[in-house]
Amino acid sequence: MAAKPRIIERRLVARTRIFRVEEIELAFSNGNRRHFERILGGRGSVLIVPMPDARTLLLVREYAAGTDRYELGFPKGIVEPGEDLLEAAGREIREEIGFGSRDLRLLHQVSLAPGYIQHETHLVLARELYPERAPGDEPEPIEVVPWDLGDLDALLTREDFTEARSIAALFLVRRFLGPGQGVSEQDGRV
Amino acid sequence: MAAKPRIIERRLVARTRIFRVEEIELAFSNGNRRHFERILGGRGSVLIVPMPDARTLLLVREYAAGTDRYELGFPKGIVEPGEDLLEAAGREIREEIGFGSRDLRLLHQVSLAPGYIQHETHLVLARELYPERAPGDEPEPIEVVPWDLGDLDALLTREDFTEARSIAALFLVRRFLGPGQGVSEQDGRV
Fold first, then answer.
1. What is the ipTM of this complex?
2. Helix, strand, or coil here: A9?
């Protein structure tokens, strides 16, 4: 297996309000040199799968500026300075869906596009929910959409459920919960 | 349901060799105005799940500049000018794993982070593979890693299998293939 390439030079080539783009020059173990650009990662984000009971997921539907459409997915947000991952997850769901959680569990860590983006997203399962609203800064109210865990076919065919991280989280939570958890005969596959 | 916000202004705030960052000002239906930044999308990419037989997936392991580590995932690449999605998929697997495909099927379209990134990735299942190598431009040879579809636990726990799109593709292909396809007793869940 090849040794990891060495970063021999790095420079910031763009800085906007929220993005930093870095150009790096790499020396590969076989002697090849290449320039790459990448978006730097910051503190990472949390994506939360809230389950008010063993059969129900809480999704959110909100406007997404990147794709310029309303998107259905799980609550998510950037980890703020001074908070750990589970604190960030608890804060995000209080802000976005008006529930806190007494059982927050880190499930998995995913990357977005590791060739180009340094950002990491931490998938968190939130159970034992209780009502608690914290003020968020969304421009319009977020629509909370409950979904039955036994009805994933309908969710996966929705045109507004497109986000790779939400799809991955959905399946990883199902896998974590194990067989028999909210799975009907019809939904036996996957 | 709220009407979609109007984009009332847009301007390019950064352009690097591969990224374009746009700032947009939006007017929401409730009167609120907000600025957002987003990374523009281009032609999109394809991510391919190659299956030389009904039980086997072909993964690739290569250096990822964004996260500065070797990553295991499915072959992927940007759609080039003048090619459609399945042509792009066929080209990418000939370049990356040395196989062409006589059965390319578009399975799903996913977004990366729709709040911030316009990019779309098209998930393609490739079967009926035949040996054909096309020259690629990778700085070092890509390692091809076959994986048994019945052994997903081991794959999901690997520290280098982190990419949300690859995880989503894995489960969507399993779901598409249906029950009984390469699923052992032990792997009955999911």
1. 0.92
2. strand
Let me know: does A37 contact A19? Beta carbons within 8 Å.
no
Residue A118 is encoded by which pair of tokens?
């340094």
> A115 with A123: CB under 8 angstroms?
no
Tell me the C-alpha distance between B50 and B46, whole Å.
12
Q: Are A142 and B88 in contact (CB under 8 A)?
A: no
The answer to whether the CB of A10 falls within 8 A of the CB of B66 is no
- Residue A68 in contact with partner chain B when CB distance is under 8 A: yes
- Residue numbers of A between 31 and 60 with CB closer than 8 Å to B: 32-39, 41
Q: What is the pTM of this model?
A: 0.93
Interacting residues of B73 by C-beta distance below 8 A, sequence separation 6+: A114, B47, B59, B60, B161, B163, B165, B166
B18 and A64 in contact by Cβ < 8 A? no
For chain B, the C-alpha Rg in angstroms (whole number) is 19
- B115 near A CB under 8 A: yes
At residue A138, the 3 state secondary structure works out as coil
Name the nearest CA neighbour of B163 among B45, B81, B79. Answer: B45
Give the pair of three-digit tokens for residue A139.
Answer: 């421009």
Say whether pLDDT at A89 is over 90. yes
Q: Does A28 touch chain B (CB under 8 A)?
A: yes
User: What is the nearest CA distance from A139 to chain B, expressed in angstroms?
Assistant: 6
pLDDT tens, chain B, 190 aa long: 579 999 999 999 999 999 999 999 999 999 999 999 999 988 999 999 999 999 999 999 999 999 999 999 999 999 999 999 999 999 999 999 999 999 999 999 999 999 999 999 999 999 999 999 999 888 999 999 999 999 999 999 999 999 999 999 999 999 999 876 544 433 444 3
Q: Tell me the longest C-alpha to C-alpha distance in chain B.
A: 58
Q: Which residues contact A68 (CB under 8 A, 6 or more apart)?
A: B4, B7, B118
Please tell me whether residue B169 adopts helix, strand or coil conformation. Answer: helix
The span from the CA of B185 to the CA of B169, in Å, is: 22
